[in-house]
Amino acid sequence: MTTAVADSPAAYPTPDSERLTLYGSFTSSSSFKPMLFLSLSGLPFDFRTVNLKKGWQFTPAYRAQVNRYGKVPVLQHMGLTIVDSNVILDYLARITGAFEPAGEQHRWQAREWLAWEAGNITNVAKVRHYSRFREVHPEVMAYFRPEAEAALSFVDQALAGRDWLVGDSISIADLGCWSRMVFMAEGGLEIERWPNILRWSDAIKVMPGYAYPYDLIPKKDRTFVGR
Ligand SMILES: N[C@@H](CCC(=O)N[C@@H](CS)C(=O)NCC(=O)O)C(=O)O
Prior knowledge:
Layout: E1 20-24, H1 29-41, E2 45-49, H2 60-65, E3 74-77, E4 80-83, H3 85-96, H4 104-120, H5 122-132, H6 138-158, H7 172-181, H8 195-205, H9 213-216, E5 222-224
Parallel strand pairs: 1-2
Antiparallel strand pairs: 1-3, 2-5, 3-4
The protein binds glutathione.
């Protein structure tokens, strides 16, 4: 385990307050999920950057006090520490009611999409990661690229003739699935190949508060006052 990493915080006290604190990184599609939720809903929150390139996520302080898995994102609220992007979306939808589908069946279906996303759209993130940050053997890419394409095709078919994945309005299912695929072009997965995804993502992109991750997620700690 890494013991000292340049510039990393020495301690991470869990704020026992009603204010939301989000830990994340601007290169991370997982961080984009809660960031997008908070930005679209106009909620006030504090953002704390975790410099993944410098390895802040591996420090003993971060692992002990924020995320034992050494990843982003993490949400802290009311003395709670909530780890994993989809669990955070679930939490935010529950406590705010925003992006929560109407009706019990649709609420479960939104969580079903998030669970499916974690096992499938995650391959889109892997292809982007291996294209952008870590070169892998061509056979590794040859395995993951069709998996990523299959996940995108599944979502594209699910969106045929409908605006949103669940019910009649945008929900955490849409935010979770779109955010994980947001960097698809960096993996050579051109969105024009999936016309329903293109139409659906265009509808998300015009919402007040939307911005591309590199513009939305700060590179330094920041306080968002909300709107
Ligand atoms: N299942 C987790 C995955 C989190 C994850 O893999 N985060 C990446 C950034 S997208 C990370 O922290 N990587 C740092 C590392 O692996 O060193 C979630 O959805 O939150």
